[in-house]
Amino acid sequence: MKVLVADDDPGSLLVARAAVQRSGHDCLTAADGDQAWALYLQHEPDVVVTDWMMPGLDGMALCRAIRAREQELYTYVVLLTSQGSRDDVLAGLEAGADDYVTKPLDPFVLHARLLVAHRITTLHADLAHYRKVLSRQARTDPLTGLHNRLKLAEDLEQLHLRSQRYAEKYSVAMCDVDNFKSYNDIYGHQAGDQALRAVAAALLGSVRKSDGVYRYGGEEFLLVLPKQSTAGAKALMERALDAVRDLAIAHEGDTSGQLRLSAGISSFSIEHRVDANALLGEADAALYAAKAAGRNRVELAP
Question: In what side-by-side order are the strands of the sheet with 99-102?
């Protein structure tokens, strides 16, 4: 672990540092609360052992600052104090400390506290990891590996707000695999799943890194294209349709004899300031127009 010790008493600081290092941990030291806070921001230690009374930020203020800033990883805080009353201990715990040690510092006691701190910080690190994994799974389509509609709602809201604020254009493209129901009827659902994964990969390979590709539902996909004009979005989608054609997936239920894609595009701009839901509705209507016009094409919203 990385341990930060803050104490304005040089003797106590040396004892604490030696105890931390003997316990096998890396040790940072600070002679006052302000220096401790600066080191905390720079190094993000796993454990902070801080004196209660010291210049600059005192131990209580340092605890509160740490707790106010923490997001994912947890910092275990041990308060060093010569004040042993119950009220003082309670005040320290309420300020965010996890434990306390009274002065003069006993190296054995600090070693024991660090053993507990290691267990707690490891547990919090594991929980943070699992939260990330679960969050990612909740926003990922399990079949294609693309983002799902939950992630779409989050990303599109942020993009729309940013585009409104900075008067930037963006486009959305609603895509649908042509005659996909008949594909499943002819070749089976396993083949249908493989085809959707192939289409998803083709779409991903056709966009920029800044673009988003989402499985919208069933055989529908949505592309979110930041800072992309209608003309630019149409050119991109034409390339995407070519990429799907290049897959050369046989489809007896389509007049072309191969799996094809249709798409509808709508764009946000200074001249066309509609909300994100309206934009999705326009792209969906353009997709239906592409289907009505014979499929295997890109149509633009009016």
Answer: 26-30, 2-6, 47-51, 76-81, 99-102
